[in-house]
Amino acid sequence: MLVKKIGIVGIGLIGGSLGLAIKKYKLAKRVIGICRHRNTLQEALRRKAVDIATTDLNLLSDVDLVILATPVGVIKEIASLVSKTIRRNCIVTDVGSSKKEIVLKLEKLFCNYVGSHPLTGSHNIGVKFADPTIFKNSLCILTPTKNTSREVLFKIKELWEAVGARVDFLSPALHDKIIAFTSHLPHLVAFSLIDSLPVKYLKYSAGGLKDTTRLALSSPQLWRDIFISNHKETLGSLKQFKERISFLEWLISKRDAEGLYIFLKKIQRKRSKIL
Amino acid sequence: MLVKKIGIVGIGLIGGSLGLAIKKYKLAKRVIGICRHRNTLQEALRRKAVDIATTDLNLLSDVDLVILATPVGVIKEIASLVSKTIRRNCIVTDVGSSKKEIVLKLEKLFCNYVGSHPLTGSHNIGVKFADPTIFKNSLCILTPTKNTSREVLFKIKELWEAVGARVDFLSPALHDKIIAFTSHLPHLVAFSLIDSLPVKYLKYSAGGLKDTTRLALSSPQLWRDIFISNHKETLGSLKQFKERISFLEWLISKRDAEGLYIFLKKIQRKRSKIL
């Protein structure tokens, strides 16, 4: 057992999956789930993702560890409320997809905090898609700062490893820069690809288009908040992307067969490095 | 049975899968496979994708139907050679992903020709990945022109339906315009997305990036040829894409939460129309 009592605030896909995994691997004696929506609370109980499901933040008063798993857009606001009810020595993490802005704020609120970003999930959201195995073989990035104690870092690392994830460490700023490229940019591109397709052409789509644009099925609320929270790095990665697509455009416009072949071959090799 | 003897020129993923499907559904008494590479011929025989495997185009002299399934870049050249050996009344189709340029040339070479484009396949190429079921529930576009006889169109439609595909008809020009958006642009975007990612960031990629860039694993030869063959429409679709991505960029740079939400919600709905 990792700790006695764990609180999960926000019981969506990630929060719900964590609840299921924590119970499956017996990482806590009791899991308290907090959520604003009654339907979600019922579903979380039905799925046995939490032991207690409530809208009342006061039930966090004696937990040992809190995981903030709400959408990025409300993490800071919820954290303020949570900070007023938990014990001073309670360990806190969040699972937000952008980190710099969130870590800056949450470090002020909590003395035992470190940010997490599990690189898993799906365009399917909500506790009904929760699955205790989604962390298996996935990567979870922790974003310690000079304020992070070794004990907190170790405990949160232990939590993620216990649910099956590999753990890596990045500064909040570097996390946001990297994830802009590997996650926020692909979402932006998928949304724009669908945006540019004439509706009447949709029926002529095959597997390739579907895969390339699956991310455009992602939650508009969630992604509005992530794009805004990490706007600087997201726009930076987009700038780079636009430059590179212009180079490919130039090769095609010149009908440079040899140049195109060498270029595409190089990219194919690079892509094959992603396991 | 559709015809007595079918010739398949080019025994890759599509040619090989067609061979397997033709034999599975007994659409011809005999399937002659033509290919330049000895290894492929052996593998095609081993997989029983063809009855006879040869490099000798003269074996097409008495076939009733020829399917040109080579990469786009060599279809026109191979077609010239094929036209010198087949019977005058032999029915011909090709499976190229771009059509205008190919149809224009092949109509001059063959009097019983119509272009096909089965919207199926994979980044995995070669007869070793051949599968008789890949046409099931897929769409196959035929591109008849004023020169196409009803008999030829009907026979080729019958062929595709017999292997499990739904058939739709488009002019070669409209085909190229639509497929630029639904296939060539997604490939271009996937290649450029990988191109723009710093190599050292690759290890921080999750499922979203993988799906969005799966097409960057596609064959460089094949896609060099398709981009060049359909360069005009591909560049046209890219122009549209760049305009749309600039709009999303603008929304993010303004941090326009409401505008972003409405915009992403609209795109999510549009994407969900792709079945």
Can you tell me about this structure?
2 copies of one chain form a homodimer. Chain A has 275 residues and is of the alpha/beta class. In chain A, 50% of the residues lie in helices and 14% in strands. The first copy, chain A, has 10 helices and 8 strands. The first copy, chain A, has helices at 13-24, 38-46, 72-85, 100-109, 150-162, 172-196, 207-212, 220-229, 231-253, 257-271; strands at residues 3-9, 28-34, 52-54, 65-68, 91-94, 115-118, 139-143, 166-169. Chain A has a 5-stranded parallel β-sheet, sandwiched between helices. In chain A, strands 6-7-8 form a 3-stranded mixed β-sheet, covered by helices on one side. In chain A, helix 2 (38-46) links the parallel strand 2 and strand 3. Chain A is elongated, with a radius of gyration of 21 Å. The mean pLDDT of chain A is 96. The interface between A and B is large, with 84 and 84 residues.
What does the secondary structure layout of this molecule look like, with pairings?
Two copies of one chain form a homodimer.
Chain A: E1 3-9, H1 13-24, E2 28-34, H2 38-46, E3 52-54, E4 65-68, H3 72-85, E5 91-94, H4 100-109, E6 115-118, E7 139-143, H5 150-162, E8 166-169, H6 172-196, H7 207-212, H8 220-229, H9 231-253, H10 257-271
Parallel strand pairs in A: 1-2, 1-4, 2-3, 4-5, 7-8
Antiparallel strand pairs in A: 6-7
